[in-house]
Amino acid sequence: MLAEVSETGRALRRSELDALRELGERAADAGHGWRGLVGLYLGETRRVWSTLPGITGPAWGTRADAARTGEAVLAAVDAAVAALGEGHEHAQRLAVRREEAERREFVDDLLYGRSDLGRLAERAERFGLRLARTHAVAVAEGERAYDDVHPHVRRVERELIGRFGERDVLLATKDGRLVCIAASSERAVLDAFTAYVRGALGERAGARRVAIGREHSGAGGVVRSYEEALAALKLADRLDLPGPVLHATELLVFPVLLRDRAAMADLVRTVLGPLTGSRGGAGPLLETLHAYAAAGYVNAEAARRLKISVRTLSYRLARITTLTGYDPADPLHRYTLETAAMGARLLGWPEQPL
Fold first, then answer.
1. DSSP 3-state helix, strand, coil percentages of the chain (rounded to 5)?
2. Does 63 map to a domain?
3. What domain range is 14 assigned to?
4. Per-residue pLDDT reduced to its tens digit, 213-257
5. Alpha-carbon distance values, 349 to 43, 52, 235, 291 (Å)
6. Res 126 pLDDT > 60
7. Which pTM does this prediction carry?
8. How far from the centroid of its chain's Cα atoms is residue 198's Cα?
9. pLDDT tens by residue, 61-110
10. CA-CA distances (angstroms) from residue 351 to 252, 290, 347?
11. Which of 106, 112, 132, 140 could form a disulfide with 197 if both were Cys (CB 3.0 to 4.6 A apart)?
């Protein structure tokens, strides 16, 4: 092709450029890097340069036209390399999109427990996970939804890979949350992930809350740990838990409380139902019970949290005893009131009727 350009001075034809684009795609699919490909074509150009007829002699004019011949050849080389690059980049973009689609499909299948377990384990190895091991899942929730192109997500991923490498760790986004799956032997990964997404990187997009599921083995264990982390986030919202980092192991009592929903509703209705007869409804007195328990049943601290006087707190506690028949000063009554108050939060009472 270069010999013909050298003889005639013509530009490359569209069919030749299309063929070069196809060659670029095939080279990318075969795993050849762009630097090596450019080096190959420029090296071949240099090798044949002295043999081109328009360079070594006046093939299409006087010898004075040799410089213009060289320019025509270089223009052809430039066009050829550009076409080759277009094909190579196109193939790479397709490969990246295909890889992202496969990764997204794998994450969906893994976290929802779909697909054949053997096939899932095969695919997991490609993404750096060995599902035969024990894993735990951390889920971060931000003020705004996370997605794959979120800059904070990319920076967290770079920091984790830079510090720990790609050793049995997978970072992905799911339903607007950032998910980190790590082997139980790599617990430091989850600790670093929690620190990074909480704002240790100095970014304003830090996560509002992070929940960590328990460690479980196998592909089903990843699903279970993920579901525990999601349940912890929901409980935190429902109960207004103060901690920014939640561990499913510390919240096991709540699923137990909700296991028999009818019994819990009966407890709330029986113990706290009379509070609805109070002026202002059950809300203020229920809030008093929550603050009293959170303060370790210390009057001064509970009053400070409620921003009321100790005298007002004492009045409210006496009112609770009068209406319910349960005295917060009595250990057994206190436990019953606290359990019922927690159940009220879990069931959304009194806003939601029982």
1. 65, 10, 25
2. yes
3. 2-98
4. 999 988 888 999 999 999 999 988 888 787 789 999 888 888 788
5. 78, 89, 15, 17
6. yes
7. 0.65
8. 13
9. 555 567 788 888 899 999 999 999 999 998 888 876 777 778 788 888 88
10. 25, 16, 9
11. 140
Contact 153, 199 (CB under 8 A): no
CATH number at residue 289: 1.10.10.2840
Structure tokens at 13: 């034809």
Residue 263 located in a structural domain? yes
Token representation of residue 189: 């990964």
CA distances from 266 to 289, 341, 351 (A): 18, 12, 16
Would you mind telling me the total number of residues written for the chain in this entry? 354
Q: How do beta strands 245-247 and 209-212 pair?
A: parallel
The per-residue pLDDT for 60 is 47
- 56 plus 23 within the same structural domain: yes
Residue type at 298?
V
Q: What secondary structure does DSSP assign to 198-245, as a single string?
A: IIITS-TT--SEEEEPPPEEHHHHHHHHHHHHHHHHHHHHHHT---SE
How many angstroms separate the CA atoms of 272 and 6, rounded? Answer: 96
Distance CA 62, CA 237 (A): 85
